[in-house]
Cobyrinic acid ac-diamide synthase (Hyella patelloides LEGE 07179), 252 residues
Amino acid sequence: MAKIIAIHSYRGGTGKSNLTANIATIVAQAGNRVAIVDTDLPSPGIHVLFGLGEEQIKNTLNSYLWGQCALKDTIYNVSHVMTQKTASSAIYLLPSSAKLADISRILREGYDFELLLEGFKKLIDLLELDYLFIDTHPGLNQETLVSLTISNLVLYIMRPDKQDFQGTAVTIDVARRLQVPKVLIIVNKALKEYNFAQLSQEVESTYKTRVAGILQQSDEVMRMASKGIFAVCYPEQLFSRVIKGIARQIIL
């Protein structure tokens, strides 16, 4: 049975989509069939990390939710990003539309959440997935609640910032109320001078939740500017080693 993993953050700007792309790709390279669904419909962007331009994307998750195409027509095989893989490795992406008109329509009209839930189930069967990653919209809304409800694991991305500390407390409480089986925290964009062991202890003590990894603010990641999967392109960098450690905790 496929494991469903929701990647969430209380606020935008945490690096959620970048981490989703990196973690999911490393999980796929380990010999798994993986798919990512970009449900951040108001502000999509994860497709950029996989080198998909608007001219290459004919149908999107929006198209499926509006009844304009079948689910299978929204799937893009992005396995080309992997440099190391086994015979069973594969990674697929279901992007959302980055067109202004489509984003405006989503914000204005919304969409059928039951159809989204049905789409997740169909996707798992259609692609015979081992892992389904859901890149969620920041904050708390109906789409987020749907994603959390069906997830086996929620990865919360937070920065070592007071606003993030307060907001993450709210979202973790929601996950517990929804009885999500497992919750892990990833601290991103931590400054080099921080005491990482102390920071991890503080976060775990505050939320009674395990920290899966702390990622240092990286100039190299910023320079890459979303032009690829960093952990694949630079596997020996500290950022990449932490990503691999997080991926191992997911696969266990």
